[in-house]
Amino acid sequence: MRLEGESSNSNGTSRPFSNGSGVSPLHKAALSNSANGTRRSSIAMNGSSTTNGHSHSGGKQRPSYFGHDREEVTRILIQALTDLGYNGAAGSLSQESGFDLESPTVAAFRHAVLHGEWTEAEELLFGGSTEEGGVSINGSGLVLQPGVDKNVMRFWLRQQKFLELLEQRDTGRALMVLRSELTPLDQDTGKLHFLSSLLMSQSIDDLKAKADWDGAEGASRHQLLSDLSKCISPSVMLPEHRLAILLQQVKRNQISNCLYHNTSTSPSLYQDHACQPDHFPRYPAKDLTKHTGEVWQVQFSHDGKRLASCGLDGTVIIWDVESWDVLQSLAHSEGGICSLAWSPDDTMMVTVAMDKDAILWNTLTGNIKVRLPRFGEPVSSVVWAPDGQTFITGCLDKEKNLCQWNIRGELTYDWGRAHRIQDLAVSANGHFLVAMECETHIYVYNFVTRELEYELDLKTKLASVSISQNSKYLLAHNVAGEARMIDLDTRETVRMFKSGEKAGHFVIKAAYGGANESFVVIGSEDGHVFIWHKETGQLIEKLEAHKGCCNAIAWSPTNPSLFASAGDDHKIRMFALPSPTLNPQP
């Protein structure tokens, strides 16, 4: 399809710090080695005296573990065993190694938070007297991360105290906490106003709904402990699930270095991970040849069971992905269908055409549900809102060029801009609407408020835009054969993908694809498919797909080993893993 205007944190490398030795008798019964904020069960502390609050090994120098600090490794293993529920094994490891997961002060602090003893929690966290006139303890409090605002941590603790008093229907004491404990901390005024409004809650359920809070008996205290633990030095209080996080980082690093990784299955920990090229869908598996003209777009349904294609012949063909039989052939336009979009539930589809027409179809029956009023110029693009109740059309006219419609065909909003829109994209989280004009500009709207957030001039004539499923990255493809990955929040270019082959005067749609959208895939004017590794920017495949321009690529949303390309040679080519039963049709 031609463009408009053309004729055709570290865990601490130093030893743990002392957290003070003064612990109240109540806390002595509550010393715990449980994982940070995730378990109510505990295992007994091993030994009575500790070195630096953790070890009772008598200061004996121990060898490192393959270059790693032996105490750090052991404490992480104790935490992991507790996470796994092996409390006895965790206790035995602590006893044999001479290392405790955490000091008595940390254990007492954990107990205080999980049991709602807020004055004690502040004393143990910060040391000395609290601002309420509490009794001083022997110690200076827990060692915090550099730059931590203590008043923020106090606010979190006192906010939990306030909410729990409201849950108990003790409005008088809750009001006193708001006035004398929360307000003097000089934190977010808006948050204080919100908390004040909760005093008017009609019931406990109303309170929980408004505050998005599950109560003292829910997970709120554990979540509070988790948040507070992130502010405490990791050498004193280990971050939650530290071993699991380290293992996940190892997996992510191996996956990011594996160019052909294309599965959502987690790699095994037993061996280093590497995928072979033969496990990548680089083989032509089948050609679909029912179109009688150039194929301009191809798109899988969200459930991956159907494939829709459209183009110059003015028809939409819907294929069964398992058998590749034609399920429906929807006639629309003599001038060519520019774009199509499945509804989120796959029961509807909008098609837009060169003949200035736009139609909403029932994909189950093949019948027309709504035909929109005729536009002034060709309708170039269409996308659905994530809720499936409205869709947005882009038009090459200077009027009604960016409009939102409901499924009854009623215009719900006209942005009233003078842009001539060539392509559209909506983020899956419903925040961004991106409109690409037919020259060099991209307009990024807040889809909720409908206000323009910013615009970008990419200096080169553009061909297509798309947004990653995580709603973070825009992919803008230009006629020079370059695709730019842009962070939608920071507006910064994250990575460039350059094929070296120009798109010329054609609309060639670039897209993300593969498992976890690990790849960027783009067609070219000479019929090739280029596939890049998204994280490294490395070109991993250049595949022959069509005689003539390759206009669009669609990757199956449910099968990462299958994608389709659409070309000017009237064909749709399916790429898959090697199979003796699937071969291209002549």
Automatic annotation (TrEMBL):
SMART domains on file: WD40
CC per GO annotation: GID complex
Ranges of compositional bias, category Low complexity: 46-55
Pfam families tied to this protein: LisH_WDR26, WD40
Signal peptide limits: none
CTLH domain boundaries: 102-173
Residue ranges of WD repeats: 288-329, 330-371
Region (Disordered): 1-66
GO biological process, one term: proteasome-mediated ubiquitin-dependent protein catabolic process
Top-level taxon of the source organism: Eukaryota
Alphabetized InterPro entries for the sequence: CTLH_C, LisH, WD40/YVTN_repeat-like_dom_sf, WD40_repeat_CS, WD40_repeat_dom_sf, WD40_rpt, WD_repeat-ST_regulator
Compositional bias ranges of the Polar residues kind: 1-22, 31-45
The entry's keywords: Repeat, WD repeat
Role: Involved in the proteasome-dependent degradation of fructose-1,6-bisphosphatase.
Protein name in UniProt: WD domain-containing protein
Organism: Hyaloscypha variabilis (strain UAMH 11265 / GT02V1 / F)
Lineage: Eukaryota, Fungi, Dikarya, Ascomycota, Pezizomycotina
